[in-house]
Specification:
Blueprint: E1 2-11, E2 14-24, E3 29-33, H1 40-47, E4 55-60, E5 63-64, H2 70-73, E6 76-79, H3 91-101, H4 108-117, H5 122-125, H6 134-142, E7 152-156, H7 164-179, E8 183-187, E9 199-203
Parallel strand pairs: 3-8, 3-9, 6-7, 7-8
Antiparallel strand pairs: 1-2, 1-4, 4-5
Helix pairs in contact: 3-4
The structure holds adenosine-5'-triphosphate (ATP).
């Protein structure tokens, strides 16, 4: 369970939000919505422990994440709004590398299966990632979610650049993750097509 208690965030001289109290329990996806610049990415970085809060506490299963380091980060998969992929590597090599770094199954076969699951076939899998379209690159970055066994996913605009088919595939993967007891916090500019009992919206004031 991930909780924020009276969390506040300021960037520069500007306060973005304060008094944020959110509890993310197994089976729930929190969609963080708000205008450009309202602080969605900042909140996600705070939840990962990458950005200190102005005020307040973030707890993982009851313990303040401030003193936890790996004990916390080993439970989470973070995907920033940049894809974090290496252009010179093939999609398969990229997925293998990110899976290896997060301790997931990094075999070539599993990477190929994950890429198939996001709709990238064998021909695209063998190209240098630099020649892929924006949406295909996004799918390469997202493929790691098909290998992640971590309970908490923190994802910054994962739907960006995806076409309708990609959005459907990702939504299905979210559903599997939540049904298996996973949790997610997702910054997004669009509706998430999940059942109401597994979805909460968190609107930042902006
Ligand atoms: N290092 C920084 N120093 C000062 N201000 C910053 C810094 N990083 C971000 N900001 C400001 O904080 C505000 C929130 O930025 P953030 O990226 O969290 O917004 P966002 O809601 O994710 O926006 P978008 O929808 O455009 O992705 C913006 O006004 C941004 O300019």
């Amino acid at each position: 369970m991930l909780e924020t208690i009276d969390l506040a965030c300021a960037r520069g001289a500007r306060e973005l939000f304060s008094g944020l109290n959110v509890t993310v329990t197994p089976g729930l996806l929190f969609a963080v919505v708000g205008e450009n610049g309202s602080g969605k990415s900042s909140l996600l970085r705070m939840l990962c422990g990458l950005l200190p809060g102005e005020q307040g506490t973030i707890r993982w299963n009851g313990t303040d994440i401030a003193g936890m380091n790996d004990e916390y980060t080993q439970h989470l998969t973070y995907l920033g709004h940049l894809n974090g992929i290496k252009d010179d590597l093939t999609p398969v090599e990229n997925v293998q590398m990110s899976a290896h770094l997060s301790g997931d199954d990094s075999s070539a076969g599993s990477a190929q299966e994950a890429l198939q699951a996001v709709g990238l076939g064998r021909r695209v899998q063998a190209l240098p990632t630099r020649v892929l379209s924006q949406g295909q690159k996004r799918r390469v970055a997202l493929a790691r979610l098909w290998l992640s066994r971590r309970p908490l996913w923190i994802l910054d605009e994962p739907f960006a650049a995806l076409d309708e088919g990609g959005i459907t595939l990702l939504t299905q993967r979210f559903k599997q993750h939540l049904d298996a007891g996973g949790m997610a916090v997702v910054a997004t500019h669009q509706e998430v097509a999940l059942p109401r009992d597994s979805l909460r919206y968190l609107r930042l004031p902006g």
